[in-house]
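cron nightly-structures :: item 1 of 1
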Amino acid sequence: MSKNILVISTSPRRGGNSETLADWFIRGAEEAGNRVEKVCLYDKTISFCKGCLACLKSHRCVIRDDADIIAQKMRQADVLVFATPIYYYEMCGQMKTMLDRANPLYDSDYRFREVYLLAAAAEEEESTVEGAVKGLSGWTDCFPKARFAGTVFGGGADEIGDIAGNPALEQAYEIGKVI
C-alpha cells in the first residue's frame, strides 16, 4: 500500500550531509511506490512560537508563515521523516523551531503514524545522536496514534559531501524501501 511521506530537511545548509541522507531515503521510498514530498527549511521563513496556544482551538497557527503551511502538510502525511545535522549533540535549531510550530497538530485529526529521524554529525560516536532522538521521540509521544519508528545516523560527516560512502546512506535507502 502506497504511503504519503513528508520528508523535512531541517539543515541550514543546502546540499548538506543530512539532506543527502534524506535524498537516499527518498530514492528508496519512491522506488517502493510511495508518494514523497521533501520540504527544505533553509529557504523558508519560520518564526518562533509565541506560546499563545490559540492553535489548540483552531488547529492553525496565528503566525502565517511557512511553518504554518508545513504543519498542515505534516497533518496530511502518513509518515514524517526529519533530517537534521547534529549541533552540540542535539537537533539543529531549525528543526526544534519547526517542532514547536507544529503545535496546531496536537489533539487534531492528524494522519501520521510513523516518525523517523535521519541525522548527520561530525562526531562518529553513536551516542552523538541521543539528544536528537530524545527530543523527537518526546515530541512523537505527544501524538498517541504515532510512534517513533527509527533513526539513521551518519557520523564523521562535517563538511558538505563528507557523508559520501558512509553506510548510513544505504541504511536510509533501505528504510525508505521498506516503509
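cron nightly-structures :: done
The mean pLDDT is 97.
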